[in-house]
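Anyone else keep sequences and structure tokens together like this?

Example one:
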Amino acid sequence: MKVEIQNHVEHLPSALNGMTLSNLLTRSNRMASKAPTICDGTANAVDAKLSEIDRELSISVITEEDTEPVLDLLKRFFFKDEPLNTYVQLGECKELEKYCTKSLGEHSSYKAVNSRGEIVGVILNGTIMKPQPGDEPPAKLADNCAHPKFRKIMALMDHVDEQFDIFELYPDIDRFLDCKIISVDTNYRGMGIAGMLTDRTLDYASRNGIKLIHVLCSSHFSARVMEKMDFNEVYRLPYADYLVNGEQVFDPEKPHVALRILTKRLDQ
């Protein structure tokens, strides 16, 4: 497989200058970084697809102009395959679309593109700033979510935020880069694309003085990718332990048994 890395000089966006920390610290940036499940198929189906795969890929930064093709990829794969989305049978969700694209202006997210110009994988990232004394606490995600199925997922994210504060674990960190979503076209899985996209994210963080990378994984497979890249687990919530009114809310298919937060420091 030939992979071309397109060089870009990316820095933290100028739009961040002059913004208050309370504006930057949006709880919606804390939603899970998830990779869709790997879909198994018959050998014949796999053989048929292999002939269609374009293995000449390039990795480059995502811009606002990529919004529609990025959403197209996510709707075809991530929206359907991510374990919690699958469990609640999420369907169309404009609120999830907005969440996925809200940080593209930072130019910290990356895409894998084949020689036909098709986006076959993405990693969507966003910067989270440490709250400062006097900042108003952000509203809970579920409170502002009109989509009933997506609200269940947002309530889980609110619960995690209440139970775990990454800035308490890393008191010397004033910001971190959150890998929110990783998604790869089914036909291109198993080619190391998620790892290449993560490598590019690590490079972005290093060049911009960001010392910590954070990933909230709802998928066993995304967590496995991060562990192979030396990310360490700092929080785990088994789905069986997340109860509302005494009842388990999520029970996705195995091997997806827990929501996990993994981190990697870049200054050690």
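And example two:
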Amino acid sequence: MFPLLMLMLLAHSRWLATANVTNGCTSIVKNIFILSGQSNMSGRGGVFNQTSPAGTVNLTWDGVVPPECQPNPSILRLSAELTWVEAQEPLHKDIDVNKTCGVGPGMSFANTLKKEDPHIGVIGLVPCAIGGTNITQWARGGWLYNEMIRRTKAALQGGGMIRGMLWYQGESDAVELEDAKLYKGRLKKFFKQVCKDLQLPTLPIIQVALATAPGPYMEVIRRAQLGIKLPNVRCVDAKGLPVGPDLLHLTTPAQVQLGQMLADAFLKTQRSVRVADSKAEFELYVADSIAEF
């Protein structure tokens, strides 16, 4: 009886801790990350075809959540209703509503950040990705762009800071040659407009170079992604990560690895900033010393 009572008390204390985080989160979420793009950011890990007794084929998520993607009371997600809740897979279940969502890179990314930087505090994820969308649909003034900016600004209500944006998109632009040729310019413009509208000119943006595409021009898109030369944009390469039976979407283990790659890239941007700040401080100190001398 005593062990059962202790188990109930522990479960209740964990519920209270979670409730305190999610209900009072507007005042404690300090590290906000935008998750945007199309299906491989939304997450299709563990999604498979299931044939019903009637013979119809439905996409179903297998429900498998690997250890790297397990919930953590200090990792939150902004729901479709613009409220903070404890994050759990699938992160985009109420955002990419016309598709079956599975595991994406977001939870692996957040858990890796928590592991590598134990002092980072609360992480707030803002899911915005929609499957099957091309870069023109993300142009400034369109519904997808406006919704992403609206959700991001809502995430800031009550405090917090936008720390970065994770972007995985481009498969849909690999179908037509004209779209592929124009992709680099459109993507660069998109990144610049996001930074301008969020008033964050140095916002770290970690984009993913394609692993797969439904069209013949994937390499044109990849060259564009790898060739973006903006000081605040880094690119991680997903090519070679395991792909599911549809030959388009990353598997659950691949999404776990991608999340870790994204976290590593983000942490490198922070180290670069610290080095730059230290260099600037040292140069200022030397200049002041010379002036005094």
